[in-house]
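Title: [Solved] Transposase 3D structure

Original question kept below for reference.
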Amino acid sequence: MRKRLLAQIRAHQKLGTAAMFEEVDTDLKHRINSLVKELEDRIARAIAGDDRLSETASVLRSIPGIGPVASTMLIAEMPEIGTITGEEAAALTGLAPVAHDSGTLRGKRAIAGGRRALRHVMFQAALVAAHHNPSLRSFADRLRKAEKLHKVIITAVARKLVTIANALCKNRQKWTAATA
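Solution (posted by the thread starter after getting help):
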């Protein structure tokens, strides 16, 4: 809703009608921001109020590339994290390659299925991790040198990030450079 409203405000500015809608747009923006803040606070309290969730969030946040949004999404959308294999975690996130045995893509592999909202958040986390996580940065650099497409690189980094997150949650240990 916030993104849609901001796009609407920009459209008003381009059309020269911003002054006509400024009061309503400003009021809506404040209301939406207030509701978003309230929801974020509720989520933070829910995680802090549960020892297991709090520990999982702490483990996830220790991984360079996983911030508050990605850690919260992993906890909410993949409650199985830490109790499944890395391959299962990648599949649940929709980051595991799926072979196409028929049709025009015969013999090709692509990602499919999984939890779409979580996958999109993990793509964003992968963009950050590819620059700020030493082991994932070197992994991404190797793929770049092999002339892989950007989308392929980010997908591979996202999959590796989910696999690392799952393994660390399974062992209940925080990220260290040696863990990678």
